[in-house]
Amino acid sequence: MTIELTTVSAIIGWIYVIGWGVANYPTILHNRRCKSVEGISMDYLFFNMMGFVLYTTYTSCMIFNSIIREEFYLENGEWPLIKVNDLIFGVHNLLTNGYMIIQAYCLGYSKKDSQKVSIGAKVIIGCVISYIIIGLIIIYHNQGWGVVIGEFNLMKLVTYMGLIKIGMSVCKNIPQIIYNFERKSTNGWPVLMIWFDFFGASMSLIQLIIDALVVNDIMNIFDNKPKLFLAVQVIIADSIFFLQHYYLYYDEGEGYFILE
Known about the structure:
Elements: H1 2-21, H2 25-34, H3 42-64, H4 66-76, H5 84-105, H6 119-143, H7 154-183, H8 191-214, H9 225-248
InterPro entries: LC_transporter, PQ-loop_rpt
Pfam families: PQ-loop
Keywords: Membrane, Repeat, Transmembrane, Transmembrane helix, Transport
């Protein structure tokens, strides 16, 4: 039974990577076709970029860093449930989001004068970077890079980085929700992207639950909070985008894909 669940988990893991991973492509293709990024909030792009830098760091450390993995095991009694597919998801979305920033600033795509990164976004991102740097300095000053339990250590810092990614996701979605509200439209914000996003988050959550069942401890999902909260947050945010697109600002002319 455990082997079967492990196989199912692996399959679902790659399904979520593909489903969630292609979520950015409808927006990229729409921007390319229209030579415009007018449907996207710049705060969304930069919060998303920062978020995936954090998430990629979190997943890579939980998979490959022996010190962080040992600290996690000693504190939780289980190894991290983070898988290689989680890392690939983070790296892929980091690259695709980076390309959308290139579309906005380097390829000459049109955008409104009001489409700028807000001061608030700059301050928040600056504070996050400062927190990480200060955290690393404190850890090195107190105990170096060795395995430490019961104190603020590398494992906790990396976990906090993963949780901050959730905050970045909230921060990125709020400006986009407000931007849609101000325009009373979701035009330029492909709903197909939201469907892929919703599907990927749902599959990620299911994989986490299955992995917890494999180790016979359903509460283990709460030891991997960044992956859990990211999936839940995305499902909630996408539900709001569905409400905006299909009910509040519905336009038959935009169609299902909104790619024209």
